[in-house]
């Protein structure tokens, strides 16, 4: 079991590689969701993006867990994803959820999973926890509207853009966003489990 052993240079390289792949999944998810919702459901992009991220990134996450069976890998990836939000112009506090969810997912995967030799269920739980970090850029839409609007204006966004963005922000859509994120993450975990089982069934799992 990898557990709390220190990350090696090879581990850090793998974390970098899989973080880059996860970042690509995020980019594809945002691009595809923006295109589809722009055509079919204008104003709903932010509600669906975390769900699609969860759906697409499962295999990357599961493979990272296989390749780097040590505490810290998921935390680092969460911090890197949060930094991506920070440097790409998202709301400043968007960094916090991914960093926090990365740490919590790492604890679930490394500590709690030690009690489960098969680890599939708890690994899926850790992926769901990690995926909720992708809510970082959208939660301020509901909880920090004034500050979020100010940040958009500072970035040069038009009032029409802002009005469209907030046109469907309500308590029901918050619940829908959380529910969709959960479903997307569960589906992504299932897909990731199957891919790993198919191609790595003869190898030892994380730990």
TrEMBL record:
Pfam families: Trep_Strep
Record-annotated membrane-spanning stretches: 12-29, 41-64, 71-89, 95-115, 127-145, 165-191
Xref: InterPro entries: CHP02185_IM (IPR011733)
UniProtKB keywords: Membrane, Transmembrane, Transmembrane helix
Domain of life according to the entry: Bacteria
Family annotation (NCBIfam families): Trep_Strep
Name the record gives this protein: ABC transporter permease
Native source species: Bifidobacterium xylocopae
């Amino acid at each position: 079991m990898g557990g709390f052993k220190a990350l090696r240079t090879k581990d850090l390289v793998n974390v970098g590689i899989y973080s880059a792949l996860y970042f690509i999944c995020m980019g594809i998810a945002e691009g595809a969701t923006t295109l589809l919702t722009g055509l079919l459901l204008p104003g709903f992009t932010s509600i669906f993006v975390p769900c699609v991220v969860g759906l697409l990134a499962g295999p990357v996450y599961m493979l990272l867990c296989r390749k780097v069976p040590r505490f810290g890998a998921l935390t680092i990836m969460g911090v890197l994803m949060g930094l991506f939000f920070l440097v790409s112009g998202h709301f400043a506090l968007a960094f916090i959820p991914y960093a926090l969810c990365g740490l919590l997912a790492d604890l679930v995967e490394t500590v709690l999973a030690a009690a489960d030799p098969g680890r599939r269920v708890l690994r899926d739980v850790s992926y769901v926890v990690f995926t909720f970090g992708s809510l970082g850029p959208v939660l301020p839409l509901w909880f920090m509207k004034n500050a979020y609007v100010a940040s958009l204006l500072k970035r040069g966004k038009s009032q029409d853009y802002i009005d469209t963005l907030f046109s469907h922000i309500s308590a029901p859509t918050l619940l829908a966003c959380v529910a969709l994120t959960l479903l997307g993450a569960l589906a992504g975990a299932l897909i990731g489990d199957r891919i790993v089982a198919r191609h790595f069934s003869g190898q030892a799992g994380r730990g």
